[in-house]
Design a protein that fits this description.
Shape: elongated
Number of strands: 8
Radius of gyration: 22 Å
Order of helices and strands: EHHEEEEEEEH
Low-confidence stretches: none
Distance between the termini: 30 Å
Helix content: 25-40%
Mean pLDDT: 85
């Protein structure tokens, strides 16, 4: 049995909610720190500053996101990597249940009618990797990907009637 294996790492969109929370915590921490000195060193303001610093630390852990696509023997595994240090398995897709993988705007997607307005987006920020692809899984789940050429080629070899590159 031949085993197919390809990895692809793409930069995801920055988490704007975490970044906004981090900025808000910084502003509040500076304001509480200044107020602590203006009010004569109140201990409860020091506790608030410490809590806000902890909030800054935890919100900064989720600001930079990357996605890793891992293709192993007819399974596509998508992992989310936070700050280049923490990895979380997001989902595993079996190629037996994939209906189609095609570039966004491809004529092959016309047979699937109107596409969802809220797909799962695991695509890259920029399209330097090779463009965005749409994967329709089990007829109802729509997934946006940004695979490189090697990943598209191996998926096309595994399922030639399901994967299109034009």
């Amino acid at each position: 049995m031949s085993e197919s294996y390809v990895e692809c790492l793409v930069k995801g969109r920055p988490n704007t909610k975490a970044k906004a929370l981090m900025i808000l915590c910084i502003i509040l921490a500076v304001a509480a720190f200044v107020a602590m000195f203006l009010l004569g060193g109140k201990w409860w303001l020091f506790i608030i500053v410490i809590g806000l610093v902890v909030g800054i630390y935890f919100s900064s852990q989720y600001t930079r996101v990357e996605y890793e696509y891992l293709y192993v023997d007819k399974e596509l595994v998508i992992d989310k990597i936070y700050n280049e240090s923490r990895r979380k398995r997001v989902v595993t897709y079996s190629f037996d249940k994939v209906q189609i993988i095609a570039p966004v705007g491809s004529r092959h997607l016309d047979n699937f009618g109107k596409l969802s307005t809220n797909p799962k987006d695991f695509s890259a920020v920029d399209d330097s990797q090779g463009g965005k692809y749409v994967m329709i899984y089990e007829g109802q789940e729509q997934v946006l990907l940004s695979p490189n050429e090697a990943l598209v080629k191996i998926m096309k070899n595994a399922a030639p009637r399901k994967v299109y590159s034009e």
